[in-house]
Amino acid sequence: MSASFASALNAAREASGAQHYPQGALYVVATPIGNLADITLRALHVLQTVDAIACEDTRHTQSLLRAYGIDRSGSAWLAVHQHNEAQAAQQVVERLQQGQRIAYVSDAGTPGVSDPGARLVAAVRAAGLRSIPLPGASSVTAALSVAGAVAGKTETGGFLFAGFLPTKALERSTAVQHLAQEPRCVAVLEAPHRIRDLAEALGTLGVRQVTLARELTKQFEEIVTLQAQALAGWLAENEQRARGEFVVLLHPLQAAPADDGQGLRVLRLLLGELPVKTAVKLAAEITGGSRNVLYEQALQLKRGDGADGED
């Protein structure tokens, strides 16, 4: 433990020690997603004082806590992961009913969103017990905060969290085409061994802007915004770019400029005779409309006709 974390433990006791921590409650604690400094003072205090800590991987979490100078005994640890979540949740409920305070952490970030923990919290709530959130690091909100992809108070405001898409190619492709119709920003998570497959699937979205955020908060953090059709090529340029956990943000669909619908009418006529890219280019020149918007409209029209939109 470094001297800076020793100071943090002292600050945690001073800032959080006087607060109220109910018995018989589950404390859902966010932990860093890479940078150890991204821990809250309240999290440090709770992890020192609760009766038990439930977590995905006890060895991983023990190592994390030791970095802060927190060393809990073996009896304080409960393994709660995707393979035993239902059974382990009942054990947690029983201990809470005895008046214990239990913290739950995932391997990184905020539990219960894309990591195990949702079933545990549901079981606690079903038993009439309390779950208390300790907010902190989240890869999704970290990426959203710097991507400029969440619109204001408009029809495309807010964002949709889609989590991990299906791993099978056909199901993933279907999911991407479904999300292509979503006008708001869409947040997707992906693992390094599947990011190239996801990039290929997203390539069908053409010029729609996509932000890739990898290794967030770590030394080799990288955040880039590209057209969807350029993602696969960008990853292929450097094998290092496929490493790390990813947050992928589909930017909102661009709204068509307010007009009398001339651009769409011209586009429909041209698509009957010409390839998509040529039709879009001519429609933009004729009407003065946005080429990006017209391209997205062309893809939607092609999908509606049962075509593949690749011509």
TrEMBL record:
Keywords: Cytoplasm, Methyltransferase, rRNA processing, S-adenosyl-L-methionine, Transferase. Residues 258-302 form the RsmI HTH domain. SUPFAM superfamilies: Tetrapyrrole methylase. GO terms for biological process: methylation. GO terms for molecular function: methyltransferase activity. It catalyses: cytidine(1402) in 16S rRNA + S-adenosyl-L-methionine = 2'-O-methylcytidine(1402) in 16S rRNA + S-adenosyl-L-homocysteine + H(+). Its EC number is 2.1.1.198. Pfam families: RsmI_C (PF23016), TP_methylase (PF00590). Residues 26-229 form the Tetrapyrrole methylase domain. It is found in: Cytoplasm. It is an enzyme of class 2 (transferase). The keyword Repressor does not apply. HAMAP family: 16SrRNA_methyltr_I. NCBIfam families: 16S rRNA (cytidine(1402)-2'-O)-methyltransferase. Belongs to the methyltransferase superfamily. RsmI family. Catalyzes the 2'-O-methylation of the ribose of cytidine 1402 (C1402) in 16S rRNA. This is Ribosomal RNA small subunit methyltransferase I. The lineage of its organism: Bacteria, Pseudomonadati, Pseudomonadota, Betaproteobacteria, Burkholderiales. The gene is rsmI.
